[in-house]
Amino acid sequence: MHCTLRLATIAATKPPPLSFQQFIQRGKVIAMYRKYMRLTKRIPDKNDKREMRQWIRGDFDRYRSETDAQKIEVLLAQATRQYKEMESGMFSML
């Protein structure tokens, strides 16, 4: 009985399935997050690398619950511009 109650609770808290557009956007967000994390591999100082990764994680977590598709597209565009700026800045540092 306890197991059945637990399964019912898990099923009740399961989020609804994503629409196709949400699925595509989720993939874009994950890809952008990974690009940022790969970019931090170029940072030689371990403390600076850790701080940058914490900042990136915090920034992505801040908008984790965003559901508005237009807002997500705006955030992705901002992230892309910022990534390009960071990438060009890192090449000049190395």
UniProtKB/TrEMBL annotation:
What cellular-component terms does GO give this entry?
Answer: mitochondrion
Q: Where do the Complex 1 LYR protein domain residues begin and end?
A: 28-84
Asked whether the keyword Ubl conjugation is assigned, the reply is no
Under Pfam families, the record lists: Complex1_LYR
Record has DNA-binding as a keyword? no
Going by the UniProt record, its keywords in alphabetical order are: Mitochondrion, Transit peptide
Recorded hits in InterPro entries, A to Z, give: Complex1_LYR_dom (IPR008011), Complex1_LYR_LYRM2 (IPR045293)
- State the function annotated in the UniProt record: Involved in efficient integration of the N-module into mitochondrial respiratory chain complex I.
Family statement drawn from the similarity comment of this UniProt entry: Belongs to the complex I LYR family.
**What is the protein's given name?**
LYR motif-containing protein 2
